[in-house]
Amino acid sequence: MGQAALYTTSHTGARLHRDVIYATDTEPFGTLHMTIDSSKKYQTIQGFGSTFSDASGANLKSLPDKLSDLIMKQYFSDTGLNLQFGRVPIASTDFSGRVYSYNDVANDYSMQNFNLTKEDFQWKIPYIKNAQKYNPNLKLFAAPWAAPGWLKTTKEMTGPGALNGKAGDNYHQAYAKYFVRFLEEYGKSGISFWGLSTQNQPTLGSDKKNKIQSTLFTAETQRDFIKTDLGPALAASSSGKDVKLLILDDNRGNLPKWADTVLNDMDAAKYVGGIGVHAYQDGETDNHLDETHKKHPNFFILGTEASEGYGSKDTHVDYGNWDRAADTASDILDNMNNWMTGWTERNLILDALGGPSWVSDYTDAPVIAFPAMAQFYKQPMFYAIAHFSHFIKPGAVRIDHSLNVIELEVETTAFLNPDGSKVIVMLNKGSLVSTEHTVVVQDAADSRNHYHFTLPHRAITTLYIQTSQF
After folding, report:
1. How many CB atoms are located within 10 Å of the residue 436 CB?
2. How far is CA 270 from CA 72, 277, 326, in A?
3. Bond into 356 cis (ω within 30)
4. pLDDT band for position 363 (50/70/90)?
5. Is the pLDDT at 4 greater than 70, yes or no?
């Protein structure tokens, strides 16, 4: 008979607690019966990731080197979270200590004055290389929050505003060169990129109340910029020709219309690799992602930003907050069950305020730094991510699964790894009643093996079924 490992994280304090579960050939009693069917396959998973923000780098730098290295190991090694992606901001973001671009010389359309900054050399590049030490196959994707101010209609990098002019003019060609120069300059430090986002949260550039760095693109102007300026510039560049270009990089409510507008234009679509989606509209009872996948099955959908604690009126960083761990797990479950191929956290590590952030746009993070005490604290969110990222390997495929009853408080998903192992993740949100569930998992292709375990109240479990003894 088979055996599996069951990992549990709960609001009562369990953190990836491991039990060995032995299969039985008789079907035991259970309130929840899950059937998995690996003959029915869906999307291939690329992996999970986080962001090398200035704030993350500043906090890592504030800790002793051994602790920073330990954090990188726990995030990126295969014994830790096994993160496969790193998002790298192009110049400053709301999680920077100041506002800066890489070229503030007005009318320098050839980008001769392009230069990386101290933030890149102190807070980004060293920790990217540290992460690569633990995962040499780390996939990096870059994203700009805003063009240099002189390229925008408002002349300001911060706040609303679009690119000046129109596709094909000096402004748009200069901005395309800005992307290429970024890739080239990072290449000089031995860092190459797997992907590139056209723009972080392009719809934010239309919000007149917005204060952070942004550049407005509509689906139409993004399409035209890609096919006329950015796509050809990347294709002509040795640093950019193999980079996977991402469109949207914003909330799912923009889909499928945004994808339709860009990808139905073959001259733009030929440069595009995938669709980036933020997590801030996750859980909505709509079919945005499913419709997008059906219409554009040859383009992957990647989760490019997610976080907890944003917009909180009380506590941005809330130590030990279980609800945020449950929300993180629910977010990933929703993403994975709706054709997402990956998921990315907004910051690796923040301070006790949830920053630094030049605009006080504080939020929570999986790891919080305490430099005065030379310590760091792992939030329950860290372990929620681990329930997926540690076990679901790159190249895994989501497989069909079903429950015998509809249980609104329980969310589930299932995967088949390249090595034949199977991963079942379950979340018992338990927000309505204090209920634990007896669970029976059966593989449709193996009627002899039933795995029987308890899903506690307010808990996350991962059942890892290996093909061989472990």
Report:
1. 15
2. 36, 20, 39
3. yes
4. very high
5. yes
CA–CA distance, 440 with 17 (Å, rounded to integer): 19
At 422, the amino acid letter reads K
Give residue-wise pLDDT tens across range 92-121.
999 999 999 999 999 999 999 999 999 999
pLDDT digits (tens, 9 = 90+) for 74-86: 999 999 999 999 9
Q: What is the pTM of this model?
A: 0.97
Q: Domains, the chain, ranges and CATH?
A: 3-43+397-465 (2.60.40.1180), 46-389 (3.20.20.80)
The pLDDT of residue 470 is: 35
Q: What share of the chain is helix, strand, coil (3-state, %, to 5)?
A: 30, 30, 45
For the record, the structure tokens of 173 come out as 């060609």
**Catalytic residue, candidates 156, 185, 291, 305:** 305
Beta strands in 145-265 (DSSP E): 195-197, 244-251
305 annotated active-site: yes
In Å, how far are 346, 397, 444 from 327, measured between CA atoms? Answer: 15, 23, 30
Establish how many alpha carbons lie within 13 A of residue 415's alpha carbon, considering only the half-sphere containing its beta carbon: 31
Distances (CA, A) of 382 to 215, 365, 454: 31, 8, 22
User: Is the link from the previous residue into 256 a cis peptide, with omega within 30 of 0?
Assistant: yes
Nearest residue to 91 via CA among 120, 52, 71: 120
* Structure-block tokens of residue 61: 């730098």
Which pLDDT value is given to residue 26? 81
